[in-house]
Amino acid sequence: MTTYPEQANGGCMCGAVRYAVDGAPMSSIFCHCMSCRRHTGAPVVALAGY
Ligand SMILES: [Zn+2]
Q1: 1, 9, 12, 26: least CB-packed within 10 angstroms?
Q2: Rounded-to-10 torsion of CA 20, 31, 26, 18
Q3: pTM confidence score
Q4: Which residues of 28-48 are buried (b: 16+ CB within 10 A; e: fewer)?
């Protein structure tokens, strides 16, 4: 069983954009496409859609 926090917060690296979302995400995935790897410098990225 997956549990989620009541509210998730985040934002961009420079801090100009902040967000807060309530409830469980509609979808969540791990992506390892070239675009995600280049944008993050990581081998895989975790994404959630609200
Ligand atoms: Zn991707």
Answers
A1: 1
A2: 10
A3: 0.59
A4: eeeeeeeebeeeeeeeeeeee
Instruction: Specify burial of residue 24 (Cβ count, 10 A radius: 0-12, 13-18, 19+).
Output: middle
Average pLDDT estimate for 15-19: 95
pLDDT band at residue 42 under the 50/70/90 scheme: very high
Ligand 1 centre distance from Cα of residue 22 (Å): 24
Q: What is the pLDDT of residue 27?
A: 93
Find the 28 Cα to ligand 1 centroid distance in Å: 12
Q: How far is the CA of 44 from the centre of ligand 1 (A)?
A: 8
> Which of helix, strand or coil describes residue 38?
helix
